[in-house]
From TrEMBL:
Residues 21-32, 66-103, 117-134, 550-572 have a biased composition (Polar residues). Belongs to the PP2C family. The keyword Hydrolase applies. It comes from the Eukaryota. GO terms for molecular function: metal ion binding; protein serine/threonine phosphatase activity. Pfam families: PP2C. It comes from Penicillium citrinum. This is Protein phosphatase 2C. Residues 137-469 form the PPM-type phosphatase domain. SMART domains: PP2Cc (SM00332). The keyword Hydrolase applies. InterPro entries: PP2C (IPR015655), PP2C_BS (IPR000222), PPM-type-like_dom_sf (IPR036457), PPM-type_phosphatase-like_dom (IPR001932). Keywords: Hydrolase, Metal-binding, Protein phosphatase.
Length: 572
């Protein structure tokens, strides 16, 4: 998965063979043994068979029976070694003892958000589809890369109607910014549970290591935590809210049983905003809600010295709103080496930062925190220097993301690419843009990139998401040719009051749990944690993922404190 890591050795217990009953193998007679059974005979078995006339039929029968027993044991061990790998096709509420639930499914018994069924294209956030007023289209393709990887540790999530953008004077119950309603509330009937159409997008890819748990958990939960953080602080700049969200995710993962699991992450929020000119912003403008909050704060503080030109008084807030212009804004945040690229006039603009052990700045941060960079890995173990999870290394491997804020230019910005390092290890940013620039269908474009990575012999799991922007729709909204949506106070907002799309999806999962007799129960949480810990203890000998494996043939230096001279600079 990570740069510099070797692909894992082929495991002979890669998969079970369907259609074979391991119990029936023991009862087979020697003369009826099939070629499949003979394939697992130990070396030298053919020599013993050639000497069968000298040793007698009793010895031959005993040897063949031993071979069949070994084959049965082989299949049984293969099944057990894969028992922790949960399905990604959706969460089942079945309590049948014959089905081994994944850790995420066990925790889903007490958290409806973790029980949300996978949506189209394996969307971890649930089912989300565009509307006639959507100004973008999402396409996503994933591939386990079965020639190199035994399991799929990537997850992804996207929403077409993420939380509405707050306005300074709007009431909090418009455009889905009201808090999630209680499941027992009489107002949350099937007819009244409507999702507000916002045309605000959420996109994310999580690349797991040391198992799938952290990536799957983030795919189900991070967007919900982000919405909660945004509701609590509507006037805080979005990059700060993204940082708070990643910190909260890290804190919650630390409380869960699988503390060795982690994931890199790249997330993006594409939303409509009313923005005003600002000389203090790198983009030349600022969102209206934070700007208005700053105005109120400056007006109420006598100690704060402000500029008359940049900071109007409280009475000028209506004038500030009159100056506001509706714009499309893209916010990004990433930890690790998952990457996001924007195509602007055919040129690739990277909106993320690769947090790797080979990066000079990240290496200095690790050493200043008391860690070491050995073979471009944190303490010789982890190839990335920032990630979600990885509790055992959290003092060094921080979850604070690199964030960006970009105002979309309708005439220049064409599409966005999110992908894990499985693509970027074998494909440059510009090459990816060139491959799909003339492909208008987002789904086809994502498949082209994944197929290209496979053809280039990528050795990692592959996940690629392409967001194709509708420039005509964006220009119509900016020029007021169509009714705007997505911001509190829009004329159409009062006609479609309801909850956010994410809250509606979770409420649907909660009702499914209730219908299955699996209501929220704190006792189930404790039981799930105990079961997961027991499962972990029984799988201590399971081979770790290649992201955490060192090359056994490579000699580690005794002490190699990172210095400026021995670490190559990472391209930005």
């Amino acid at each position: 998965m990570f740069s510099g890591s070797s692909s894992p050795p082929k495991d002979k217990t890669e998969a079970t063979v369907p259609g074979i009953d391991t119990n029936s193998l023991n009862s087979l007679q020697p003369e009826n043994a099939s070629p499949r059974e003979k394939r697992f005979s130990p070396p030298g078995a053919g020599f013993f068979r050639r000497q069968s006339e000298d040793q007698g039929p009793a010895g031959e029968k005993k040897r063949r029976s031993s071979t069949v027993t070994k084959a049965a044991s082989f299949f049984s061990n293969a099944k057990n070694s894969l028992s922790l790998n949960g399905t990604r096709e959706g969460t089942s509420f079945s309590t049948s003892p014959q089905v081994s639930d994944s850790p995420l499914q066990k925790l889903g018994r007490m958290d409806p958000a973790l029980s949300v069924p996978q949506g189209s294209f394996n969307n971890s956030a649930g089912e989300s589809v565009p509307t006639t007023r959507s100004s973008f289209r999402v396409g996503v393709t994933e591939d386990k890369n079965r020639k190199c990887r035994r399991t799929m540790e990537d997850t992804h999530a996207y929403l077409y109607n993420f939380l509405g953008t707050p306005a300074p004077t709007a009431s909090p119950d418009i455009n889905g910014n009201d808090p999630p309603r209680d499941a027992n509330d009489s107002q949350t009937s099937e007819d009244s549970l409507n999702a507000v159409e916002t045309d605000n997008g959420y996109f994310a890819i999580f690349d797991g290591h040391a198992g799938t748990f952290a990536a799957e958990w983030c795919g189900k939960k991070l967007h919900l935590i982000l919405e909660e953080v945004m509701r609590k602080s509507p006037s805080t700049p979005v990059p700060e809210l993204l940082d708070q969200t990643f910190t909260s995710v890290d804190q919650q993962l630390e409380k869960l049983p699988l503390k060795n699991s982690g994931c890199t992450a790249v997330t993006a929020v594409l939303r409509w905003e009313d923005r005003v000119p600002s000389s203090n912003s790198a983009t030349g403008s600022a969102a209206l809600a934070p700007a208005a909050a700053a105005v109120k704060g400056d007006a109420s503080s006598d100690a704060l010295e402000t500029s008359v030109q940049d900071t109007p008084t409280e009475g000028s807030i209506p004038k500030l709103q009159d100056r506001a212009v509706r714009q499309r804004v893209l916010y990004t945040a990433n930890v690790g080496d998952a990457r996001i690229v924007l195509c602007r006039n055919g040129k690739a603009l990277r909106l993320s930062y690769d947090h790797k052990g080979s990066d000079e700045n990240e290496g200095k941060r690790i050493t200043n925190a008391g860690g070491l960079i050995l073979n471009n890995r944190v303490n010789g173990v982890l190839a990335v220097t920032r990630a979600l999870g990885d509790t055992y290394l959290k003092d060094l491997v921080t979850g604070h993301p690199y964030t960006t804020e970009t105002v979309i230019q309708p005439d220049a910005d064409e599409f966005i690419i999110l992908a894990c390092d499985g693509l970027w290890d074998v494909c440059s940013d510009q090459e990816a843009v060139d491959l799909i620039r003339n492909v208008q269908d987002a789904q086809q474009a994502s498949k082209i990139l994944v197929d290209h990575a496979l053809a280039r012999f990528s050795t990692d799991n592959l996940s690629c998401m392409v967001i194709r922007l509708d420039s005509n729709r964006v220009k119509d909204v900016v020029s007021n040719k169509v009714d705007p949506i997505g911001v509190d106070g829009d004329p159409s907002a009062n006609l479609n009051r309801g909850v956010s799309e994410a809250d509606k999806i979770v409420e649907g999962a909660r009702r499914s749990m209730a219908n299955a007799g699996l209501a929220d129960n704190p006792e189930l949480a404790e039981q799930a944690n105990e079961e997961i810990l027991e499962k972990m203890a029984s799988n201590d000998n399971q081979e770790p993922g290649p992201e955490l494996n060192l090359d056994s043939n490579h000699q580690l230096p005794s002490v190699d404190v990172l210095s400026q001279s021995n670490v190559p600079q990472e391209s930005k």
